[in-house]
Request: fold
Amino acid sequence: MEKARKKIAACVITVLLAAIVAGLVYYTQQRQQAQEHNRGTLVIKEIEDDGHGIE
Reply:
């Protein structure tokens, strides 16, 4: 009985650590994508009075 309990505890700890690592990887990927999204050239399109863009 004690061996089974230790195996279950080891499995639970392994799954918990895997979930934490996956969460950290997801978090860092989302932060990098947000930073890359903010980089670049800002392009402003001017609108004339009639609502059409300048061509």
Remarks:
- The longest helix spans residues 2-38.
